[in-house]
Amino acid sequence: MADRCDIINVEYWSKRWASNDASWHKSFIQPCLEQHYQKLLPKNDGEQTKARIFVPLCGKSLDMLWLAEKGCQVVGLEGVEEAILEFFKENNVAYDVKTLDPDGIKCYSSLDKSKDISIYRMDVFKVTPIILGGTLDAIWDRGSLSAIGLYVENRGSRYADILSSLLRPSGCIMIENHVWFNDPGPNGGPPSHVPASVLKDLFGKNFDITPLEVDQSIIPKNDRYNRVYNLMRLKTNH
Asked: 184 lies in which domain range?
């Protein structure tokens, strides 16, 4: 397990990408997303419309390509530039890159009109709707919460507030979190242990939380945890 201070630094994740130690990256579309993605789509007068979907700490996830091919506008965010470059190269997607401010925020955008994908290279704790060009219909959080070091420096509640601020009214989050059979404590992980009680503490004030499914997984060293999926929709009084 990583030192609790390491995982909050982009250098830690950069080293893992550089050494090909990115076990969280999958060469397939997340089954839960395939099964439930229509729940992310907004509805106008009962009709489903094109969704603007945010994927925080996206890496080079194929989920983004799949969502774009479904007609969604995909907005990713990643701190490690190498992962972004690999995404476009490995999927043969031509792109343009723009530097947005003196702090070095970059936006990589697909030049293929059939794949509406933009990925921002920046700190997830600095993202705002203005930077992303507006609010979002939905968020697909595939393990981002479990990777941010949520028990360090109040990062969990800060992260929850940021995601809430990015959504349009009635927007929602589909989230994958990790529940260890043997709680490793706040210093454990990544992925961090995020039981239902923690998810409720972080998001329950602003979101109605609906369980979707549980996917039991085995990771190296024979440690065992469940991947747990929930749909969280902004409350109407938010």
From this structure: 151-237
Q: Is 174 inside a domain boundary? A: yes
The pTM of the full predicted model, rounded to 2 decimals, is 0.90
The Cα–Cα gap between 234 and 63 comes to 23
DSSP state of 107: E
**Can you read off the two tokens belonging to residue 21?**
């130690």
164 or 183: which leads in pLDDT: 164
The larger pLDDT score, comparing residue 185 to residue 197, is at 197
Count of domains for the chain = 2
How does DSSP assign 20-58, residue by residue? T--TT--SS--HHHHHHGGGGS-EETTEE---EEEEET-
User: Which of 51, 96, 107, 47 is closest to 74 using CA atoms?
Assistant: 51
Residue 114 pLDDT greater than 60, yes or no: yes
In a domain, 40, yes or no: no
198 lies in the same domain as 159: yes
CB 218 within 8 Å of CB 224: yes
- Which stretch of DSSP H or E encloses residue 84? helix 81-90
Query: What per-residue confidence (pLDDT) applies to 107?
Result: 97
